[in-house]
Amino acid sequence: MDTGRIRRELVSSFSLVVTAERWLLAGVPLAAVVYAVWVGATGAAIAQLTEFAGTPVTVAPWSGTTTAVAGVAGLLWVAVPAAVGTFLVRDRLTNHHDNLKHGYRLQHPASLLVAPAALLLVGVGALLGAGEAAVPVLALVVAGAVFLLLRTVAYAYRVFALSVPLVPLLALFFTLSLLGTSLIAGAAVAAGRAGLLADAAAGLGGATGLPLPAVLTGTTELGGVPVPTLAVLAGGVPVGAAAAYVGVQTLAGLLARLLAPDVKRSSLRTGQRYPAFAHPGPGAAAGGSFEAGAAGAGTGGTSADAGGGTSADAADGPRTADAAGAGATGDAEGAEAGETVEDVSHTRVFRPPEDSDLAPEDGGDEG
C-alpha cells in the first residue's frame, strides 16, 4: 500500500476546502440572502395576485383555493430553489463538458469523504454535549451533512463501479428542499407566526394526507433537548443517502474486482477512475483496443478524453489529439487546465506516466 500517496490524498481532501471549494464560503451566505429576497418578492406577488383576483385565501378554514396557492408557493419557495441549487453544485463539480473537475480526481475516491466526515463528527460530538445550545450546534451538523453529500456527488463521478452521480444529486435536491422548508418554518416562528404555521401545516396535511404537522411544527429530542424535526431531517437525510450510496458502491467495487471485467475507455466519462484490473500492460501496442484486460493508446488511451478514462484526464500525462468519439471534449478540457496535447498515436510502446491511473496500484482502491 502506497501510504505516501494516501497521505497526500488525505491532505488534498482538506485542502480542497480552501482551493476548489472556496465558492462555498461565499456562495452559502449569498444564496441565503438571494433566497430570502426571492421568498419575499414571490410572496408579495402571490398576495397581490390573489387580492387582484378577489379570491380570499384563508388557512382556517382551509379551502381549495388555499391548497392551490400553497402548491404555487411550495413550487416557488422549495422546488425551484432546490433545483437551482442542485444544478449549481453539479456545475461547480464538473466543467462545461460535464467532466469531473481535476481537483476531485484522487486515486482513492473515498479520500474525498474524509474532510466532510471529520466536520460531521466534530458537529455530532459538540451536539452530544451541547445541552440547551443544541439548536445552534445542530446547524454545524447540518452543514457537515450537506458537505458530505456534496463530496459524495464527486465521489460518484470518480469511482468506477456503480458510478451513478444522479443518485446523490437527487438526494441533494431533496435535502435542499428540506432546508428551504426548514428556513421558511423557522422564519415564521421567529416572526411570531407560529400559530399560522400550525394552521397551515394542519390544513395542508389534511388536503394531502401527509403527516405535515408533525414534520413542519414537530420537535425531536436530541440529548434531552427538543429541536425542530425539520432540522433533524435536513441533517439525517444527506448522511443516510451518502452512507447508503458509499456502502452499496463499495460492495459493487468488490464484485467488480473479483469479476475483473474488460473495460473500454470509451465507456467511461472523463474524470472517472479507470480500474486497476483493466490497466494495459507495459508492452501493449499503441493501436490496440481494450480487450481481455489489455489496452493500447489508439482506442483505449485516447477515448478516455471522450468517454472518461482517468489516466488521460487533466494531469495524467500526454493525450492524443485525435481521440475517438468526442476527442474535442478532452482537448478542450486539457486546454482549460493549461495542459500540453501531444500526438502519441504512433508510439510503439505505451508507457504510463508515474502519476497516472495506469501506474501500479496497491490493489485496495475503490472499484
Tags for this model:
single chain, 367 residues, mainly alpha, 2 domains, two-stranded antiparallel sheet, 11 helices, 58% helix
DSSP helix fraction = 55-70%
Mean pLDDT: 78
Total helices: the number is 11
| Number of DSSP-assigned strands | 2
What topology, given as strand order, has the largest sheet? 1-2
Q: How many separate structural domains?
A: 2
Overall geometry comes to: elongated
Q: What ranges have pLDDT less than 50 throughout 5 or more consecutive residues?
A: 283-348, 352-364
Q: How far apart, in Å, are the first and last alpha carbons?
A: 16 Å
H/E series? HHHHHHHHEEHHH
Q: Beta-strand percentage? A: under 5%
> C-alpha Rg, in Å?
25 Å
Main beta-sheet annotation: 2 strands, antiparallel
Briefly note the structural class of the backbone: mainly alpha
